[in-house]
Amino acid sequence: MESNSAARGQKPPKVHHVKKVRLFGSVYHLSEIGTGTLLLIPGIAFLIFTFVIPVIQVIQLSFTNYNTITGAMRGVGFSNYAYLLTGSTSEYFYQALGHTVVYAVVRLAFDVTIALLIAVMLDSNVPLKKFLRASYFAPVVVPVVASSLIWIWFYDVNIGPFNQILSWIGLPTSKWLLSEKTSLMSILIFSIWKGLGYNVILFLAGLQNISDSYLEAGRIDGATSWQLFWKIKLPLLRPIVSFVLMMDFIEAFKVFTEVNVMTPDGGPLRSTMLIVNYIYELAFTNGRMGRASACALILFVIIFICTFIQRRIGASKTVDYD
């Protein structure tokens, strides 16, 4: 009796109601949101100072005639964009853009195709597989400037190994970087060699992630090696192919270092003047920072639109055999 009365005299324990918030379709505790916000502050601050503020400044500069040589700056509206697209020297902009499009298309076609073929070969039982994997990836880790200087020697008209080999087999030699007909092709060969290993590793990882049960089922149905690749492996690799295409496209449109090192000032007759090199020429050679900013924003819009379209196409063609 006493224990029951004592129990009745006790106050019930307090129930602490934890406030919850629904955010982006999920429920979070307020304490979790506070902790997460604190952890995000350094990353957000870094993003603001390294991306948001520079982008805003570029947008502002694109509407001015800011000249880094004279220091003059005043608002000019859309004059910089009009100058690039329809001005007296707009041919230089379209020439650089045309060279960049050709460079990007050829690089994507060869880079993806060759990397995929090498990855398929390395996925099979070939001798020295580990050595070959390392050798294909080695150019990726070599600095661009260093490898560009080495390839300048490869392309040397008099003592370069490429012309020496052509002479030995009885073929005419080439001027490589010194001719407007072959300079862009020469840089393309270098760029494909330089970035090939990264794509090979991506494709190889995708191939090794494909379940053996799919391939075994195909073999039981009598599929050949080509049919296994075309009907099973390649469809399952579409997300990786889409990613490689997107990254290669972006990389092709922003290529600069190797072009500037191997063919300074746009090469012979501006044959290797790509869009980023043209932006550099406007900003730092001519001092036209306003026009360079406008050109950079046009490039950003082109890359954004093409990447968005490519992502939509890639997302609509995913395959799942489960």
UniProtKB/TrEMBL annotation:
Q: How does it sit in the membrane?
A: Multi-pass membrane protein
Q: Where are the transmembrane segments?
A: 38-59, 101-122, 134-154, 184-205, 289-309
Keyword annotations for this protein, in alphabetical order, are:
Cell membrane, Membrane, Transmembrane, Transmembrane helix, Transport
Cited InterPro entries? ABC_transporter_permease, MetI-like, MetI-like_sf
ABC transmembrane type-1 domain mapped to chain residues: 97-310
Which subcellular locations apply to this protein?
Cell membrane
Give the primary localization class. Answer: membrane
Q: Which PANTHER family match?
A: ABC TRANSPORTER PERMEASE PROTEIN (PTHR30193), INNER MEMBRANE ABC TRANSPORTER PERMEASE PROTEIN YCJO (PTHR30193:SF37)
Q: What is this protein called?
A: ABC transmembrane type-1 domain-containing protein
